[in-house]
Amino acid sequence: MSKDIKEIEKSIHAISDELCKTISGQFDITLQISDPNEAIQKLLMIINFLLETMRRKINALGYSAKEKDELFEQLEISNHKDALTGIYNRNYFHPYLKQHCINAQRYNECFAIALCDIDHFKAINEQYSYIVGDSVIKQVSARMLEVLRDVDVLARLNSNEFGILMPQLKQAEDAGIIIERLQQAFTDQILAENHTISCHCSIGIATFPHSTTNYKKLLRNSDLALRDAKSSGGNCFVFFSKEIKQLHQKQQYIFQQLRTSFDNTFTVHFQPTYAIKSGSPEISGCEMLLRFKNQQPHEINIFDVICIAEQHGLMPTFGLALLSYSLKKVKQLHTAYPNLHFGINL
Asked: Which of 15, 73, 223, 242 has the highest local Cβ count within 10 Å?
């Protein structure tokens, strides 16, 4: 378990302990977390349990029916609204999207969802402070609300990522018109805690029913489109397409292969080098070249492999494996051909 996951686990335990003390509830949970998304789900489970416990205690306190309704309404608002911005949170957005998919399929409706990520938000926090970052988040959400339609649903899904559901579209391309207006809202700089900040967003869009009719896949497709937008340099929006899906599958295949043994993933080719003496070329040595063992129908360039390895921090691992493998080959070849020179292309 990584250090970050342990910190998340520690924080969740602290939150649950303090909230349980507040409502005098009895709650115990053993967390076994393997990734941050699972940690978020655990936290939501704790929050929902605590809200239910609070409902039971309210019922036991003898409030009138009207007072109970008001308290329950406040609980629902706190459960479905983001505390910083006042817009919906992921606890509301995901179930709403799921139900909207069911309704849209029943009534043959076209709609789209977009995942919007603030570019370089981590740098804003590190350069100016988290207080400035919070102010940026609030102003970004406010600008989005100004340009979105009344029927559109905006939610803050995590730190600097927003989800937008755009219903009642005549055609899928109409989502692009809405998102273009959204991007134009960020042409002016944001004034946050006396700091002037240029703020832009990367946006991934998936449409219903064109990309899928399943709400989980719809989220996944928009996330893939968002990644493509960010990898293109940010400050743009991208519609999910079959090409993006194929690119993702290719990247996943490369990553999975990189996690296997060196011999199963790579092969080393030997390219001869020549020396021209008396007008006729003679082999003077060879250069060792790394090649990827591709079992897929589409072509995979070694530079694509290097890019994926760098993204996942695997360059040192297979770089050392290549060097070790190549040195063994050099030793064998040098014994057989002592007059030849050998080079290793890393």
From this structure: 223
pLDDT at 343 (0 to 100)? 78
Q: Give the tens place of pLDDT for each residue, 121-157.
A: 999 999 999 999 999 999 999 999 999 999 999 999 9
Q: How far apart are CA 258 and CA 321, in angstroms?
A: 12
Judge whether 175 and 207 are in contact, CB under 8 Å: yes
The pTM score is: 0.65
Peptide bond before 95: cis, by omega within 30 degrees of 0? Answer: no
Q: What separation, in Å, do the N-terminal and C-terminal C-alpha atoms of the chain show? A: 32
Contacts of 220 (CB under 8 A, 6+ apart): none
Q: Which domains does the chain have, with CATH numbers?
A: 3-80 (no CATH), 88-240 (3.30.70.270), 249-344 (3.20.20.450)
CA separation, residue 145 to residues 40, 72, 105, 148 (Å): 26, 26, 27, 5
Q: Where are the beta strands (DSSP E) in the chain?
A: 88-89, 110-118, 153-158, 161-169, 190-192, 195-197, 201-208, 237-239, 266-277, 280-292, 341-344
Q: Which of 92, 97, 19, 88 is nearest to 54 (CA)?
A: 19
Closest C-alpha among 346, 309, 300, 310 to residue 327: 346
Which residues partner with 29 through β-bridges? none
Say if CB 197 and CB 83 are below 8 A apart: no
Place of tokens 């990247």: 251
Residue 298 three-state SS: coil
H-run or E-run covering 44: helix 36-60
pLDDT at 5 over 60: no
pLDDT of residue 171: 92
pLDDT tens per residue across span 177-215: 999 999 999 999 999 999 999 999 999 999 999 999 999
Query: Could you give the C-alpha distances from 304 to 106, 162, 247, 253, 308, in angstroms and in order?
Result: 43, 30, 11, 11, 6
CB distance 268 to 290 below 8 Å: yes
Least confident of 142-146, 184-188, 233-237, 259-263: 259-263
